[in-house]
TrEMBL record:
This is Putative restriction endonuclease domain-containing protein. Residues 15-180 form the Putative restriction endonuclease domain. Pfam families: Uma2 (PF05685). Gene3D superfamilies: tt1808, chain A. It comes from the Bacteria. InterPro entries: Nuclease_put_TT1808, Restrct_endonuc-II-like, Uma2. It comes from Desulfosporosinus metallidurans.
């Protein structure tokens, strides 16, 4: 496995997760614990900061909110109680439009938009496991950012509950944000 090593083969719940040291970053995917250390690169932080600023500026005075990692997104399955939730992720950015999903611990349920910025240690997880997870739980729009290539792939959830073919954007393009009809993200700004 990559640098994002598992805690162990044991399965964990959100109740376990809450007891772990606050200075460590972990995610739970179907009960498997993944260490989110090491810290993101400077390039990762620059891209995340730019996207956060652009979304924040647009969302002023609106119902939706944007949050940056570390921010817990709990995705319980139907039979799981809040404490027994086996999936807790910390996407790089999330946009949540349903305020009833927000509490003092983060978000419980699917955000409307998720942005994951890849790194060598998270690449496979973002592209495979999280893609399947976000599709299954109904995240309307999923962005995967490739910092080394200055590229973003955007997936939109279809009415059938599957992600569409990716829309691929490079550093000279603009992205019309699908969940908002009037927000365009200028990628020269993001990748500057």
């Amino acid at each position: 496995m990559s640098e994002s090593a598992q805690r162990s083969e044991q399965l964990f719940t959100y109740q376990d997760y809450l007891t772990w040291p606050i200075n460590e970053r972990w995610e739970l995917l179907n009960g498997r614990a993944y260490n989110m250390t090491p810290a993101p690169s400077r390039r990762h932080q620059e891209i995340s900061g730019q996207l956060l600023t652009l979304f924040n500026n647009y969302l002023k005075g609106k119902t939706c909110r944007v949050y940056a990692a570390p921010f817990d997104v709990r995705l319980p399955q139907l039979q799981e109680s809040a404490e027994q939730t086996s999936t807790v992720v910390q996407p790089d950015l999330v946009v949540v439009c349903d305020k009833t999903k927000l509490d003092h611990l983060g978000c419980k349920g699917s955000p409307d938009l998720v942005v994951e910025i890849t790194s060598p240690s998270t690449f496979q997880k973002d592209l495979k496991e999280k893609f399947i997870l976000y599709e299954r739980v109904g995240v309307q729009e999923y962005w995967i950012v490739y910092p080394e290539e200055n590229t973003i792939c955007v997936f939109h959830l279809t009415p059938e509950g599957k992600y569409s073919r990716p829309e691929v954007y490079t550093e000279q393009d603009s992205i019309m944000v699908g969940i908002f009809g009037d927000l365009t993200i200028e990628l020269p700004e993001v990748f500057a």
